[in-house]
From TrEMBL:
<feature type="transmembrane region" description="Helical">
    <location>
        <begin position="57"/>
        <end position="75"/>
    </location>
</feature>
<dbReference type="Pfam" id="PF13567">
    <property type="entry name" value="DUF4131"/>
</dbReference>
<protein>
    <submittedName>
        <fullName>DNA internalization-related competence protein ComEC/Rec2</fullName>
    </submittedName>
</protein>
<keyword id="KW-0472">Membrane</keyword>
<dbReference type="Pfam" id="PF03772">
    <property type="entry name" value="Competence"/>
</dbReference>
<feature type="transmembrane region" description="Helical">
    <location>
        <begin position="399"/>
        <end position="418"/>
    </location>
</feature>
<dbReference type="InterPro" id="IPR001279">
    <property type="entry name" value="Metallo-B-lactamas"/>
</dbReference>
<feature type="transmembrane region" description="Helical">
    <location>
        <begin position="266"/>
        <end position="289"/>
    </location>
</feature>
<feature type="transmembrane region" description="Helical">
    <location>
        <begin position="524"/>
        <end position="545"/>
    </location>
</feature>
<dbReference type="InterPro" id="IPR004797">
    <property type="entry name" value="Competence_ComEC/Rec2"/>
</dbReference>
<keyword id="KW-1133">Transmembrane helix</keyword>
<dbReference type="InterPro" id="IPR025405">
    <property type="entry name" value="DUF4131"/>
</dbReference>
<feature type="transmembrane region" description="Helical">
    <location>
        <begin position="430"/>
        <end position="455"/>
    </location>
</feature>
<feature type="transmembrane region" description="Helical">
    <location>
        <begin position="12"/>
        <end position="28"/>
    </location>
</feature>
<feature type="transmembrane region" description="Helical">
    <location>
        <begin position="301"/>
        <end position="331"/>
    </location>
</feature>
<dbReference type="GO" id="GO:0030420">
    <property type="term" value="P:establishment of competence for transformation"/>
</dbReference>
<dbReference type="Pfam" id="PF00753">
    <property type="entry name" value="Lactamase_B"/>
</dbReference>
Length: 875
């Protein structure tokens, strides 16, 4: 049995209760923690009354829960900043200047014109006041001013004492609902401030520490850098970045597209230094020691001493720390003929790490590493016992058992954090994991070691590894091409994850019982009740894939994409539409290529796509492109590359820009239905309760505003070219139940007046150049997106008077260079009596519409807005 083996595995149950206490303290308020403690106490008392639990272990388990709660609360109480008085100014958008004395305590990362490191701060002079003595860490980012600064930054090392002159800022909160919360992440690292430094001149090295952890780790950094440069000599191009990640755990030079390919197939665990790498290291070193005829006890002593060194050299990430601690405990147990139970060793490792730092529990790598390892220990023997002994197929059946259990155990955390699961992940792992771990990793390690003895021998091993890598790339590319096998999953709730693991444990328990019967009498074996948890897991997976399938709530989300537009609409029938996708505009000048980052931020790849996946958008029924300017379409390329799209609607023109051409070409290549929008198109009903119709452009206006078709081939050659896209923005009125939303892209006053003319029955063509204002009132809309991010020449008084919006939304970037939204527009909105919401101040703005009501929520608090700009949350 697995539960309750209390007497045989006391450390396991102690650790389980400790993890439960730490989790309760992290996720619940005081009342919730007390209820969780009371529930545990009742469970322990019930087991005591049933005679299934010793009193001493019951007391230890409850003590573990209480100790974990106290430890986490104590850690939270101490996790504060000594600069609390400056928090309000920083939050209000007036970050203070500061002179900081600190020591670099992390590896220094140089990426294009950005240098980043963490610093242990000793003192800070903020706003010209007297220096304050501090003992806290800060995240430092240096924006290099010129290319020679790269050589200066390359000399900065961990352990250097530095004086920093920069600006103190608070880490950004999640500005989209469910988005990445940088502030929360840094809080778990005990960091509360960012130091933004302009130019290498803002960093002065004043000395160097000699006897400290940072100084010692600097030697490890230097060794990793030295080994990495050796890898660069052995392997060419992309291969060197891949092998540095695989063998040394250095991911900075790993090709981003290759990493995303591995991520889709669930293969990134290969690139994380973990138990596999530690096992290869111990096995290789043990083989050498045995060849040297070292005694058994001495060999174990040397291995125990070598493992921590390897952990430090590999970067000391949670996965390698878990493997290292387990290896040391296991080696010590083997040396002294003590405890050899895998779960006990794993539990001891988890307990040590959490006692040292309770915030490890929130790290994805910690959760995946320990959960999957525990699942393999518990599940693989049970699953393997049900399979044939295999004979010559034994190795393949062993691999199948390991892969199936690993997939089942990692599935909940994978879809929670990464929101995807590839149906070919199992065969990909069965094919590539053994190939990489048994061939590529040993070859790469051998090439590195041989190169120090005789470089040509190392290069020969590297050549074999290159051939193996090419095979890996070919297989992963082949498997990844099957887009229909890649499924998108919304992040499931916590109760679903807990229930999944409970059912999985029940299944392992039943299989353990059945496997005994199977070994005793194969002919009479029946799975019987073991199918019940299997069917329950299938039902849970189906529910998690579309948890809102029976909900008829419409949702309109104005995503925060900075200086751009992106609106996600879910209709009552569960269909999804995306209007624009934001875009990252580059102001890079010729000769500044050195500023380019290895994997630069791109709003579609890094913000829009993750949000769509987290919300379970399996397919976009249509992408509506208001116009072809970069701040509206730049992010859509990543959307089309990642999420299936049925239809693309745009204004029917082309623009001579690489992103516009690539977007339309991608739509054609992927066989997406492409439709040119215009006012004459009939109303489009998305479902019974939702519809939209186009207000703009008029077909003749498209022709009059466009230039002659540009030369070229394909789709763009047959379409009119329009360099100025704003006045040709696709504008539409969307109805959800009885609520109306108006979207007009980047329309200016000219096209706004033309639309008003058309709405009132005047010819649209002449109105495009007319100066008359049409002041009549039309039907009131519930929500209007202010055109062109609140530009001065949009959202005219007559436009607002005609549509009479109850609420307006402006999508603009924080501290944008254009001054959006313009004060004149804000005043016109106030004069119109409409409420105002702003993504630059409130983050994502989300409306939920039912038959009877409409509710709105914002991702961020907006205390700085006036009463007029912060209407009631529900109307």
């Amino acid at each position: 049995m697995i539960v309750p083996e209390f007497n045989r595995r006391p450390i396991v149950w102690f650790t389980v209760c400790y993890v439960g206490g730490s989790s309760a303290a992290a996720a619940l308020d005081m009342r919730g923690m007390l209820l969780a403690g009371a529930a545990l106490l009742l469970w322990l008392l019930a087991l005591l009354a049933a005679g299934r639990l010793p009193r001493a272990l019951a007391a230890a388990c409850f003590a573990a829960f209480a100790l974990a709660v106290g430890g986490r609360l104590w850690a939270d109480a101490r996790n504060t900043t000594g600069l609390g008085l400056w928090t309000e100014a920083a939050e209000a958008g007036a970050p203070p200047e500061a002179a900081v004395e600190a020591t670099i305590v992390s590896a220094v990362k140089v990426d294009g014109d950005r240098v980043s490191f963490r610093a242990a701060v000793r003192s800070a002079r903020v706003g010209g006041e007297a220096p304050l003595g501090l003992r806290e860490r800060m995240q430092v980012t240096v924006r290099l001013s010129e290319e020679p600064d790269l050589a200066v930054a390359a000399r900065w090392k961990r352990g250097d004492r530095v004086s920093l002159a920069g600006r103190l800022e608070r880490p950004a909160q999640a500005s989209n609902i469910g988005g990445f919360d940088y502030r929360r992440y840094l809080y778990s690292q005990r960091i509360h401030w960012l130091v933004q430094v302009k130019g290498a001149a803002g960093v002065t090295v004043t000395g160097r520490e000699r006897l400290s952890a940072a100084a010692l780790m600097a030697h490890a950094d230097a060794a990793r850098e030295w080994l990495g440069s050796r890898m660069e000599r052995l392997f060419p191009g992309e291969q060197s970045g891949y092998m540095k990640g695989l063998v040394l755990g250095i991911r900075e030079d790993l090709d981003p597209d290759r990493y995303r390919q591995f991520a889709e197939l669930g293969l990134t665990h290969i690139l994380a230094i973990s138990g596999l790498h530690v096992a290869v290291f111990i096995g290789g070193l043990g083989w050498v020691l045995r060849r040297l005829r070292i005694t058994r006890e001495s060999m174990y002593t040397l291995l125990i001493a070598a493992v921590p060194l390897y952990v430090v050299m590999a970067g000391a990430a949670p996965s390698v720390m878990r493997a290292g601690i387990m290896a040391v405990i296991g080696l010590a147990a083997a040396k002294y003929h003590l405890l050899k139970d895998g779960l006990h060793v794993l539990s001891a490792a988890a307990l040590l790490m959490l006692v040292w730092d309770p915030y490890y529990l929130t790290e994805v790598s910690f959760q995946l590493s320990f959960t999957v390892t525990a699942g393999l220990i518990l599940g693989v023997p049970r699953v393997r016992a049900l399979l044939p002994k295999g004979g010559k197929w034994k190795a393949l059946l062993d691999l199948a058992a390991v892969s199936m259990v690993a997939q089942a155990v990692s599935f909940p955390l994978s879809i929670y954090y990464f929101n995807q699961f590839h149906l070919l992940s199992l065969p990909a792992n069965m094919l590539l994991v053994p190939f990489i771990s048994m061939l590529v990793l040993p070859l790469g390690s051998a090439a590195l070691l041989l190169s120090f003895a005789w470089f040509p021998a190392g290069r020969a091993a590297a050549w074999l590894a290159e051939w193996a890598n090419d095979t890996t790339y070919a297989l992963s590319s082949l498997l990844e091409k099957g887009r229909m096998f890649r499924l998108i999953w919304p992040s499931p709730p916590a109760w679903w994850i807990v229930l999944w693991y409970a059912v999985l444990l029940l299944l392992f328990n039943l299989l353990a019982r059945r496997s005994i019967s199977y070994q005793a009498d194969r002919s009479s074996f029946r799975l019987g009740t073991s199918w019940v948890p299997v069917l329950l897991l299938v039902c849970m997976a189906l529910y998690a894939y579309t948890p809102d399938r029976f909900q008829q709530t419409a949702v309109v989300s104005f995503l925060d994409v900075g200086q751009g537009d992106a609106v996600l609409i879910r209709t009552p029938a569960g269909k999804h539409y995306l209007i624009d996708g934001g875009g990252t505009v580059s102001f890079r000048k010729p000769g500044e290529e050195w500023r380019e980052r290895h994997d630069p931020y791109e709003v579609g790849k890094d913000t829009v796509v993750p949000l769509l996946m987290k919300r379970g958008v399996h397919t976009l029924d249509a992408v509506i492109v208001s116009h072809l300017d970069t701040d509206h379409i730049g992010g859509l390329q990543a959307v089309l590359d990642t999420i299936p799209v049925r239809m693309l609607i745009w204004n029917g023109t082309v623009k001579s820009s690489p992103d516009a051409s690539q977007l339309l070409a991608t739509a054609v290549r992927r066989n997406i239905t492409v439709i040119a929008a215009h006012r004459d198109l009939p109303e489009y009903r998305t479902d019974q309760y939702s519809s939209f119709h186009f207000l703009w452009p008029y077909p003749q206006v498209q022709e009059e505003s466009a230039e002659a078709p540009s030369s070229g081939s394909g789709m763009s050659a047959a379409l009119p070219e329009a360099p100025d896209q704003n006045e040709l923005s696709v504008s539409l009125l969307w109805t959800l139940y009885d609520r109306t939303f108006l979207f007009a892209g980047d329309s200016g006053s000219v096209s706004e007046e033309a639309m008003l003319a058309a709405e009132q029955g005047h010819p649209a063509g002449p109105a495009l150049s007319a100066k008359d204002e049409y002041g009549a009132k039309g039907t009131s809309v519930d929500v209007m997106k202010l055109s062109h991010h609140g530009s001065r020449h949009s959202s005219s008084a007559s436009w607002l008077a005609y549509w009479q919006p109850v609420e307006t939304v402006v999508s603009a970037g924080r501290k944008n260079l254009y001054g959006h939204p313009h004060p004149d527009v804000l005043q016109r909105v106030r004069n119109a009596g409409a409420a105002l919401r702003r993504t630059d101040k409130q983050g994502e703005i989300q409306y939920k519409i039912t038959r009877d009501s409409m509710e709105v929520r914002n991702a961020l608090e907006a205390a700085a807005l006036t009463a007029l700009e912060t209407p009631e949350m529900t109307k």
